[in-house]
Each structure stands twice: as C-alpha cells, then as structure tokens.
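Progress narrative, work stream C.
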Amino acid sequence: MKFSSVRLVTEQFEAVLAFYQNLSGVAPVRLADGFAELRQDGATLAISSQQLVARFNGGAAVAAANRSAILEFEVADVAAVLERLPADVAVVQPITRMPWGNLSLLVRDPEGSLVNVFSKPL
C-alpha cells in the first residue's frame, strides 16, 4: 500500500486553494471543476469542493468540520512562509521553538483547518 494524499473538502474552493498555493509555493494541478492537487515531494494535498463530495461521495465529508487533524509542512525558513501569507491569516501560535527543537508556526486555513509550518533544528 502507498499513501497517496490528504484531501480537504471545502465550501470556499478558490480561497482554500489559493491559501495552500501561497503557503507551499506549489502551483495546483486542476483536474476537474472544483478539484485540484498540490503535488510535492512525498505528499499530495488535494482540495475538493463540497459540491463534488455531495455529488460523487454521497456527502461523506463535511467542509470546515475538521477539529482533530493538523496538516504539517516542513520548510527551510518558517519566517519567510509567514511573510508570504496574507496579513489576515489566523495565527494560532506565533513562531515558537518547541521543546524537541523544531521552530513551529500554527495557522488556520480559510475554513479553519490547523496548519503547522515548521523547520527542524540544524
């Protein structure tokens, strides 16, 4: 078995897609109206509109309902990522050195999913 991707379901498809494109610096691959992937080394983040899930998956997932998962992105420069995010991004935890050495920033995407942007100690 090969882990393929994480998919976020959203009512705000364009806003969420733009957020993750801006965050990652990766251009999305649009595969259908309301569905795109941000393909990175080791992982793919898929973004799907709520309408597609309602149509093809019987409404199995609900947009903006995540309260338990954290999407994590390892980067070389956490401060540089924060600078490219919009000024109104919801910062949950400012850039903080964690006890295990990581430099970490916690933000929320436009629909409230928690995103950890971190760098490992040198």
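Work stream C, second folded protein:
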Amino acid sequence: MDDPNMNRRVLWASLVGTAVEFYDFYIYATAASLFFGAMFFPATSAAAQQMAAYASLGLAFVARPVGAAVFGHYGDRIGRKSTLVASLLLMGGSTTLIAFLPTYQVAGWWAPALLCVLRFGQGFGLGGEWGGAALLTVENAPPGWRGRFGMVPQLGAPVGFIAANGFFLLLGLTLTPDQFRDWGWRVPFLASAVLVGLGLWVRLKLTETPAFKQQLAEGPPEAVPFATVFARHLGPTLAGTFGVVACFALYYLATAFALGWGTGTLGYSRTEFLLMQLGAILFMAAGIVAAGVLSDRYDPRRVLIGGCLGTVAVGMLLAPLFGSGSAVGVFLFLALALLAMGFVYGPLGAWLPGLFPAGVRYTGASIAFNVGGILGGGVAPLAAQAMAERGGLAPVGWYLAGCAAVSLVALLAASRSGTAVD
C-alpha cells in the first residue's frame, strides 16, 4: 500500500481502536486492584477480597479465546472491518454497564455475579480486537515496514493505560475518599461510551485489507477457520500461544499485582503509586517503538527472544528492587519491567500473523494470543498474590523468570518449524 493518506488512516484506526479497548480493560484492572474486592465481594478478610477481585480479573482471560474463535471465524469469512466494529461495541457496552452495578452491600451475591458477566463480555470483545487490529496494519504494510506498522496497535496498550490510570489519578486528586467510593469510581466506566463512539467513527471509514480481498478472489473462505487452524496449523498455533506467555505475565505483574501490593503491603498511597506507574509506562512505549524498528531491521522473532532474556533478568530483580523499601527502587523495577515488556509485546503484531496464511490468519493469531493470555496473564496476579503472601516477593520473581523461559523455548522452536507465512 503506497497511499500515504490511507496509511495514516489505517494506523490511526488501529491505534485509536486498541487504545479504547485497552482503556476499558485497564480501568477494570485498576479498579480490581484498588477497591473492587471490598465493594463486590463478602467481607471475610482483606486478602480474600483482593484475591476474589483478581479472580474476576482473570475471568476475562477465559472469555478471550472464546471471543477469538467467534470473531476470528467472521473475520476470516466476512472481513476484518465489520468484525473489529462488533468487537469494539461489545467491549464498550460491557464496560459502560459496569458503571451502573450495585455493590455487594446493596444487592448481595447479585453484585459479583453481574460483575463477572460483564467482565466476561469485556474479555469476549477484546478476544476479537487484538488480532483484527494487528491484521489491519500488517496486511496494509508496505514492503519492509511490517514491524513498524505492526507495533502501532501495540502502542494502544500504553495509551490506554495512561488514559485509565490517569483518569483514576485525577479523580483521586479532585474527590474526597467518600465521594470516590460512593460514585467517583463509576465515572471512568461511563466515559467508555464516549471513547467507543470515537473508535467507531474512525473504524467505519476503513476498507478491507488487500490480503483479505486477494484471499476472496482466489476462492471461497474456509468453512470453519477454527477447525482448519488446529487441523493444519497446530505447530504455529502452539508456538504462538507459548510465545506470548512472557508478555502477559510481565505486564500484569508490573501493573495489577504491583499496584495492589504496593498500595497494600508496601504502604504507598494510591496517588503516589499511580504516578510511578504512569511514569514507568512511558518506558513500555519506548520499548515498543524500538522493538518495531528492530523487527524490520532484523526480524520479529529475534527481537522477542532478546525481550525474553531481558524478562528473566527483570524477574531476578523483582524482589531486590520492588521490595527494597525505597520509592526509587520501586520505580526502577517498574521502568525496567515495562521496558522489557515493550520488547516482548511490540513485535507480536508482526510475528503472530506471519505464522498463518491469510485465510485463517485472524483466527490463528487471535487464538494464539488469547490462549497465551490465559497462561501468562489470567492467573498471574492471583498466583503472585498467593506466593507473596506465603513466601515474599522472591517466588514472584522466579515465577516471572519461568514464564519468560517458556516463551523463549517456544520462540526457539518456532524458528525451526519453517511454518511462517508472509
């Protein structure tokens, strides 16, 4: 694609859409880390409430592969554009409805039940979002630009994080604790409706990607893309699934778990810790950009391997820095962790779609990304909380290093499979 105006439109649509979707996802993660435990679950103990909140956070990771299969099916059969619009509507609608939920003190067990239903809806929508946004960019990328185009939807993650945590930080600075507890926490969820409208306005102006048009011209689409992926492309699917484990584990340990542990056990104020995370997320954005450039200069797999090695080092530094008792040490850990996150996340937009042919690319990339999300991120905050409660932060660091080792093995195996498809 050599039309500069179309290039800008595609990149803008992928960035805005994923930023909105990740904003929705992250405001839940922030709320779960800070106060959903006490609001939506019975008062047995503070630790039990926090773990219940993290369990509801993990529920979306179970929903994401289901969404990936459903949206992937239609994305490979009827097109990328309409599927991306539908995923955005489902995600945004689920997020907005959370703003109207009653608390456990008002509605009893109905409160956590409804919260979990809407959290499932969030995950179902996001399951179709990432794969479609990645395909939108890489299938429109000019020769030699797949890494740089593929990194653009990845930048939606730090943009969404800044918007989500920045919103909570602003509310915390302008509202009293009682106001924040009574109604202020609902405002970021309500704001999702406005942001979804923006995302829809951008995406409805798009056309289908050249790769999808060519696939239709060559013959009818696969009847059941999901079945084709597992029957003919199981090796790439497994490589992609385990290859993303490090990225999810690293991110949710450095954000959701770190926020809950930092404002609880370590005693930092919510405002202070959110400011540290907002500063550290800029390192993630820088890492994504650097990884995208390096992916075009070398190749995405090599950059991902380097990121996994860096993640092992971050795991070894988790306890000494994060548990140092110093704000400088905490910030340094967060910055290093999220910088490494850029290198295990940024190249995925170019690497994962390249494992599959165009006819099943939406399904294959989405399934691998989201099943890997369960393995890497779905249980990470809950597991880390349990390990830290019993053995301190050192086991959490080993857990992170182990997740990086899993992805490293998968990436090395993928290099020998010869299954990558341009």
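The domain at 4-417 is CATH 1.20.1250.20 (Growth Hormone; Chain: A;). No further action is required on this item.
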